Amino acid sequence: MALGTAALVLGGGLSDGIARQLTASLVAVQTGHLQVVVRPADFEPQNSPFDAYGHALLPGGEALARRIAAEAKGQGVRRAVPYLYGRGTAIAGNRSSLASIVGILPSEEPELRAAHPADTGAFLPADDPLATYVAAPAARKLRLAVGDSVSFVIQTPRGAVNSVDAVVCGVFRKGAPWYDATFYVPLAAAQALFDRPGAATNIKMTLAEGSSAAARRARPAVAAIVGAPEGLEPGERARVETFEEAGRFSFSIIQANESALAVLSAFLFLAAAVGIVNSMLMSVHERTREIGTVRALGMRRAMVVRLFILEGLALGVVAATAGIVLGAAGVLYYGAHGIPMNTMTLAWVAGGDRLFPVLTPAHVARAALAIAGLSTAAAVYPALTASRLEPREALHHI
Amino acid sequence: MLLLLLTMAAAVAAATPTADTILCRADRAVLGESAAYTLQMTVVRPGKPDRVVEMKGWKKGDALGLVRYTAPAKERGTAYLRNGANTWLYLPSAEKVVRVGAKQNFGGGDFSNADIFRLSLVNDYVPTLAGEEAWDGQPCYRLDLKAKDRTVAYDRVVYRVRSDGTFFPVHAEYYTISGRRLKWLTLGEVARMGGRARPTRLTMESALEQGSRTVLRFLAIDDDVTLDDRMFTPSALERGQ
Questions:
Q1: Is residue B2 part of a domain?
Q2: pLDDT mean over A190-211
Q3: Chain A neighbours among B 30-59 (CB < 8 Å)?
């Protein structure tokens, strides 16, 4: 039972760690708590982490972001930041690689900066129009270091091919695998590259309160400000999405993990329940004469039931305490050091190459109550069995 | 004296065709208005064995084009169709026709679908005669082509066309909007094919992959063939007609 509790605490810690990592990364890097994005009428999410990005341009997105920031303050919008995402090719020397090029306003991206800390060099400076901040895997693939030049070649939304040169200002630590090919550039450089000055693909909003309920509350006011922007292609429309809607991929992983944890818990409970019932029945069997004696001395059946149920509860409390100490120690240790996610699949599931489990009081309390409750409930049948013993027969039991 | 000067000026003017004329003549130098041809494509990638594909192609005007792979056996049946602004790819293994972008690469090489099927630069570019120069030992006109709008893949093309009266294109450099040279095409191996001389070897190199190149070599060409429009439809592509 103690091991079962420890496993539950550890499993909960892993599940919460994954949820926290995926959500924090999604909110900080892609969607904010609420985002404005242009979707075609026939847009169907591919259950991919790239679904959160807009794949169509929002003309005048930069100005619209400023309007939202100014007018939606009263609705809890702390910041509205435009960014422009696009795919292309990065070329360095005689090497080339597919690239996710993201144009950002560096001074307005503190969360992104924290989510993608620099391994070498520094984050994108606010005043350098030709700098790029590169993901470590992309830098490794193109053999790029701080100070090296890299060229980006893309096909603009209108069809022409364009290019821009940039100098690497920093290389950021590997995070979720879907950011492996990311190159951050200043928004103006991305707009020039995509041949659409003033445009953005996403407007990312950070709210004062970061819950999904707060995002849903702020949405109508933001949608009213956005209205029907001019210049969209036929069939396209601007949508205001909460981070849960925009990041379906992340939340489907979180949900899958929680389901797996629920199944694991069910098996643990079943195993623990069988163990408790078995050991309590053995205990009843071994203490038959004892039960007979106390019954002969006048103890009532209800008292016998209470005695064994209390014993089950005590057993559960002791096991839960021991399990919590063991599980919490494991969660705290791995929470500090991280668990390496060495394979591509693990990195995709955890949203990074290391997983940091989280000790959530609610999860610990739930595990403790569940084990103590289970232990108590499992003692009911042996207690009833003990209470049904006739004192005369029990005293003759060998 | 004045008459002599005017006559000389007229002669010079007559000797130097306009940029439009040069471009129109160069456009038809490799393939005629309608043509059927056999082509060999060699994709060269550093450190990898060359990939050689043979195909048969048909074109009708500037809007309709069809190419079917004939060898090697494992790629036989793969086909590309261009009809107006749309390009489709048929994969026999999947038995499926899929729409592909005009700017996607053709058959894994350095040519894009647009490079293969957009056989007319006249429609997309405004030419300017930038001068005359020798290229690979041959006198050439140097045309500066500026895209008519931003929907055209390459914003600018520097195009060199032989000035010896043949109007054979010999070299083209393709530039991005920001002015970066992205690809360059070399045309050579002039040979008599389908009743007339023409360049038969086109080599495309790309700045995206240094050391890589794709060579298209015409093995046979028939100009001015009669082609039915119905062969340039996605359903015909799927049926293999």
A1: no
A2: 93
A3: none
